[in-house]
Amino acid sequence: MDALDLARWQFGITTIYHFLFVPLTIGLSVVVASLQTAWHRTGRTEYLRATRFFGKLFLINFAMGVVTGIVQEFQFGMNWSAYSTFVGDVFGAPLALEALLAFFLESTFIGLWIFGWDRLPKRVHLATIWAAAIGSNLSAYFILAANAWMRHPVGFEVNPETGRAQLTDIGAVLTNPQAWSTYTHVLGASFVVAGLFVVAVSAYRLWKHHDQDSGMFRRTLRAGLLTTVVAGVVVVASGDHQAKLMAQDEPMKLAAAEALWRTEAPTGFSLFAVGDVEGSRNVVNVQVPYVLSFLATGEITGEVEGIVDLQERFEQQFGPGDYVPNVPVLYWAFRLMMGLGGAAIGVGVLGLWLTRRGRLPRAGWMYGVAMLALPAALAANIAGWILTEIGRQPWTVVGQLLTAASVSPGVSLGEVAFSLTVFTLLYGALAVVEARLLWRYVQAGPGHVTPTVEPGARVPAFTY
Amino acid sequence: MDLATVWFLAIALLWTGYLVLEGFDFGVGMLLPSVGRDEPGRRTMINAIGPVWDGNEVWLITAIGAMFAAFPAWYAAVLSGFYLPVLLVVVALVFRGVAFEYRGKIDSPAWRRRWDAAIVGGSLVPAFGWGLVFANMLRGVEIGADGVVRSSLPDLLSPYALLGGLATTALFVLHGALFLGLKTDGPVRQRARAAARRAAFVAVPVVGGFLAWTVHDRGTGVVAAVAAVVLLLAAVGCAARRREGWAFAATATAVVAVSVVVFTGLHPELLPSLVDPAYALTVADASSAPYTLGILSAVAAVFLPLVIGYQAWSYWVFRKRVHVEAA
After folding, report:
1. Which of A9, A215, A245, B75 is in Cβ range 3.0-4.6 Å of B67 for a Cys bridge?
2. What residue in A sits closest to B298 (Cα-Cα)?
3. Which residues in chain A are contacts of B102 at CB distance < 8 A?
4. Which residue ranges run through the membrane (chain A) (predicted)?
5. pLDDT band with cut points at 50, 70 and 90 for residue A13
6. DSSP letter at B148?
7. What is the value of ipTM here, to two decimals?
8. Contact at 8 Å (CB) between A28 and A197?
9. Using DSSP, how many helices (H) and how many strands (E) does chain A show?
10. Which residue ranges make up each domain of chain B?
11. CB contacts < 8 Å between A and B, how many?
12. What's the pLDDT score for residue A271?
């Protein structure tokens, strides 16, 4: 173990943890804004109750997304100072834009929304939650453009005097095909998570509490299912596009994710493989013929490069070194992402069918399945990030900067070990607190958050 | 003036905005036990900053983001070089942000007491930490030809740096007490007034001492340093005459003046070297290329006024004094 390993663990832990909350914030902000819009338009108290109920859950989650995001922004400089110095000119720009264009919007207007219920005209108050939702959704674009640049660096040159990357075309960075493709994929996945969150909560309430709100929860259940299915289509379509970009820009990631050792044409999609990593071969490999060729190239007989051949090519291109990322981790992360993500979307489709024309499932286990779709979707999200980030190894910036060269040279093993311990303990404790709070408020239900409201009466603010 | 200097000023502006705005909410957080003696008192205090503290904190996020974009080497050297103080500040900010959101979510005194502790610690540590970090930036660090900072923790705890930490802490306590005097009513307002008087006894000499030391070492910022002390005294005078708006405006301006002393002291060396003055990190060698700075300038020129506009509007919306009745 050296500081590099621990810094990588820390990045992995803090990033995955951050990304448990962020998709929910992104999707739920729009859900809550839509519910409030429905209230605004119809004047039906049921929508106000739903807005307040999901709004409370949204805020509990929102806080965690914000504070874990602060850690991310500082972490680049603390643990990855060599990386930061190398890429700041390019990578820092979208980060600064994110703060200026998105975070200010999100944070200022969320404050106005929380405390503005009885102080702002209804229409203006509705606008504040939309402004916060736009901020949330916009911020993701900038950070994903920055991340996409690490995987497919464009619009820059390395200054020979300073040895640092230098931005030459901000348009290229912001319209990087990897950026908008990833954004579409991540946004779709976020709305799947948010949709399934609404589904899980509504299903639980319908199943356990046959209260006066069952009409409302049936409605939110359907809305959540519909969100999941529509967003699911986006996830699948953009995922297909991502695979093609991966074949083009990061062939090693694709080869490793498929445990494809030798270049093949045509090649099948692996369903289950047991590999011998040392011997660069698979002991068992169950494949569906032609599918990988089609996914990667759009043609059923297209050629897909294999790990061993890519390793040779990279050695010629970049000099001696190990350019193979962790194959088993990538292989299973890829399968978990697609399998669990697909299953979660499947629950959405099935749910819409089961709840058609005023129906609700009787069997309790169906509600259980609806609730399990949420952790499945979160796990799929995490697997997606593991695939993205581990698959980029050994590079932090593909073809430009190795991870080993990115770490802070002046930071000691002890310092990183200390901060890793602090964050792990802190995050563990906060996870328990957040889960406990969400659970409590779901149990309490909407009656708890909304006093009976007469039409036109003032609604008290959420308070701290 | 070249773009690198423009961006040095922009970052100074972002930090100043942060210190003025979050300075008072840090102060309110630190005063929570002494001024908010009972639950209605603490609720009043927290609700006074509730709508705005998150927006205030984004000034920090933007300042750090702008350092990353405009002066990558500075961003990298400061955050890796001041590893442990920065870590503590970040952890404190995590606790604090969660605490504001979660303390009222369960109606139990023990639950609230725990989160109140997180608010106090979460406000105290960054208030002290940023003073410590900026004092160390002014003093210089063990930075060699390779641009790597090798200062250990004891190096960062010099008397000058500790005085810097104390100065920002005391300044923010005073700033926060005056904010409470302006924004609250009832017993909290009374206690905030008394707290402001006590805080001033510490803040004026400590801030004055730190500024005098800084001016002496760096040879710049005399006018701003004198102005800061005069403004602090004026704030105390206004508070005594119950001109609370003026008193708060005076400490806000005093924070600006302190910031002017700090940033004029830094320029053009962002991070002086204690090893050899030649190894100092300067504005010229830490900055991004003109192309990046140009884009940042264009975006900031359009959006920073907009941000200031809607943040000002949010302060206007919540302009009324906050008062929570005892249950």
Report:
1. B75
2. A97
3. 60, 63, 433, 437
4. 15-33, 53-71, 91-115, 127-150, 186-207, 219-239, 329-353, 365-387, 416-433
5. very high
6. -
7. 0.92
8. yes
9. 16, 6
10. 3-317
11. 227
12. 83
Task: Give the DSSP per-residue string, B174-198.
Answer: HHHHHHHHHHB-THHHHHHHHHHHH
pLDDT digits (tens, 9 = 90+) for A240-262: 999 999 988 999 999 999 888 88
> Which is it for strands B281-282 and B269-271: parallel, antiparallel or unpaired?
antiparallel
pLDDT at res. B217: 87
What is the nearest CA distance from A135 to chain B, expressed in angstroms?
A: 12
Residue of B nearest to A417 (CA): B84
Residues 236-275 of A with CB under 8 A from B: none
Instruction: Please give the average per-residue pLDDT across A54-58, as a whole number.
Output: 94
DSSP track, A66-110: HHHHHHHHHHHHHH-HHHHHHHIIIIIHHHHHIIIIIIHHHHHHH
- Is A97's CB within 8 Å of B299's CB? yes
A45 Cα to chain B: minimum distance (Å): 23
CA angle (A33 as vertex; A29, A35 as ends), nearest 5? 120
Give the three-state DSSP class for A31. Answer: helix
Q: Give residue-wise pLDDT tens across range B156-169.
A: 999 999 999 999 99
Decide: B177 and B35 in contact? Cβ < 8 Å. Answer: yes
Give the pLDDT of residue B173.
Answer: 96
Measure the N-to-C terminal CA separation of chain B; round to a whole number of Å: 59
pLDDT surpasses 50 at A457:
no
Q: Residue A276 belongs to what H/E stretch?
A: strand A269-276
Furthest CA-CA distance within chain B? 64
For the record, the structure tokens of B208 come out as 């004055």
**Cβ-contact B132, B161 below 8 angstroms:** yes
Chain A residue at shortest CA distance from B98: A63
Nearest neighbour of A63 by CB, restricted to B90, B101, B106: B101
pLDDT tens across B83-121, in order? 999 999 999 999 999 999 999 888 899 999 999 999 999
pLDDT at A441 over 70: yes
Inter-chain residue contact B58 with A103, CB threshold 8 Å: yes
- The gap from C-alpha A178 to its chain's centroid, in whole angstroms, comes to 15
Nearest alpha carbon to residue A458 among A47, A49, A117: A117
Encode pLDDT of B234-271 as tens digits. 999 998 888 989 999 999 999 999 999 999 999 888 98
Class of domain B3-317: mainly alpha
Within A273-326, residue ranges assigned H as helices are 291-297, 307-318
Within 13 Å, how many C-alpha atoms sit on residue B211's CB side? 29
Residue A134 at interface with chain B, using a CB cutoff of 8 Å: no
Contacting A residues, span 435-464, partner chain B, CB-CB under 8 Å: 437, 440-441, 463-464
pLDDT of residue A459: 52
Chain A residues with beta carbon closer than 8 angstroms to that of B61: 70, 73, 99, 103
**CB pair distance less than 8 Å for B80 and A78:** yes
Question: How close A186 gets to chain B, by Cα (Å)?
Answer: 23
> DSSP state, A403?
G
**Shortest CB distance from A84 goes to which of B52, B72, B81?**
B72
The answer, for A352 touching chain B at a CB cutoff of 8 Å, is: no
Does the pLDDT value for residue A23 go beyond 70? yes
pLDDT tens digits, B177-192: 999 999 998 899 999 9
B residues 35..74 contacting A (CB < 8 A):
43, 46-47, 50-55, 57-58, 61-62, 64-66, 68-73
Specify the pLDDT at position A183. 96
Nearest to A93 among B51, B91, B292 (CB): B292
Positive/negative CA dihedral, A375, A376, A380, A383:
positive
Strand A281-288, strand A395-397: pairing: unpaired
Taking CA atoms, B51 is separated from A115, B114, B311, B322, in Å, by: 6, 22, 10, 11
Q: Is the pLDDT of residue B327 over 70?
A: no
Q: Is the pLDDT of residue A318 over 60?
A: yes
